[in-house]
Amino acid sequence: MTEKKKAVIYARYSSDNQREESIDAQVRAIEDYAKKNNIEILKTYADRAKSATSDKRPQFQQMIKDSALGIFDIVIVHKLDRFSRDKYDSVSYKRKLKANGIRLISVTENLDGSPESVILESVIEGMAEYYSKNLAREVMKGMKENALQCKHLGGLPPLGYDVDANKNYVTNEAEAEIVRKIFDMYINGYGYSEIIDYCNNKGYKTKMGNSFGKNSIYSILDNEKYSGVYVFNKSSKKDAFGRRNSHSSKDESEMIKKDGGMPAIITKEVFQKAKEMMAVRKKAPGANKAKEMYLLTGLIYCGHCGSAMQGNRRKPKDKPKYVSYRCGCRVQKRGCDNKEIRKEYVEEFVLTELEKNILNDKAVPILVEKINKHIEEQSKHEKESTETMIRELNEVRKQIDNIVVAITNGFYQSEFKAKMEELEERKSRLELSIKEIEVKNNIPSITEEQVKNMFAMFKGYVLERNIPECKKFIQSYVHKVIVYKDRVEVIFNVAFNFLQEKDVVSIRASARKKTLFKICRNIA
Ligand SMILES: [Zn+2]
What we know:
Keywords: Coiled coil. With 524 residues, the chain is α/β, with parallel strands linked by helices.
């Protein structure tokens, strides 16, 4: 008899999304699955998030940490989007698990880890991302309405302000004093650490009730609201992979700014002065040192000793820069004599082969069929949960009506106000969740053309050698790149097993190191 596989459960629940299965329901489904598949569950990690957008997941982080201990072989989730709703995150965490020899299983999505499911998975993830972007757009619409009236849009107001019953900002005098002091110290030349010390010695707390740190001071000095300007949508947008692009400033048209839209705590002059000083101090030496983007990080290994290879950049004086991958063993001075390999040579080789071997149209029909089957199953599931939510929404509406009628008839009770607020909040949450599902279900089946377009887009990035874009999808297709002393080999995930009768083979391509520079020259 084979030994039982050991697994842990990861479950997540965000209270602002009511159509989600509760943690208990997720765990039950996973335990069922484990029983059927002869898997032993060792532990359950569960995060209850206040909001789906805030991604602090202490238990998740703990699980990733524990995955290095070698105690379990499998992480089981109920649905893939419990693991992550963001492709970039998902790929990098999955890599971490994989590096520790651990498999991720989704109970409802039935992905088995075969190369084709790896690709299917990446497409599903891409779609989840599309959904959440759509949802964000819907939410944004509602928020904009409120923003135009300079209302507080949820969360904690900044230090120095409270929010009244109509969601308008009002000054909190005691806190405003702290804010003024911070600006005052800064424009008089005090550094962050002096300001932090001052505040903490005085026993001041941030709005969250914490001690002050560099970030909290910075976000105060950077907040235009203190000068009486209501600002909405100030932080720059996240890109499709969830990273904030902090360099591009927000498109002015998407930003709502109203001078005098909220009570001022400091003058415009003080804010301006602080802003200028921050800009000057930021320009510290070395700040603009160029960073390289390494396409193959996490994928490239030394064929001589098996270590992972790492990106390395040198810039000798008076010589052009030299960027390479080197054996991790060598970096730690533990005697592997495999030579480093020029970054552009090996990346060029991988991209050329990727285009030739994987991004072709033969795979498309099979992929499309699989995706559509998946969509169908999902939407059946969604439909059921919408029905429940609509029933609940009607109930909430009825209760609201009842209170209104009671008040109109002169039966006013002080509890009504709190009850009403609670009902209104539930109502808008439900409406939002229903809307989310509508958006999701509005997506028709995927067509071959769409997938072809997706591949064509990838191909375009490959041909342009757009490394940042390529990096986003390459991990779905490239299994491993191995650098031997004399040659380089790349192993791709085979999209589909139509190539052979049964077993899934991986496509390998290899080239002698000495010839690699020629590939580069051909392209150039
Ligand atoms: Zn090595």
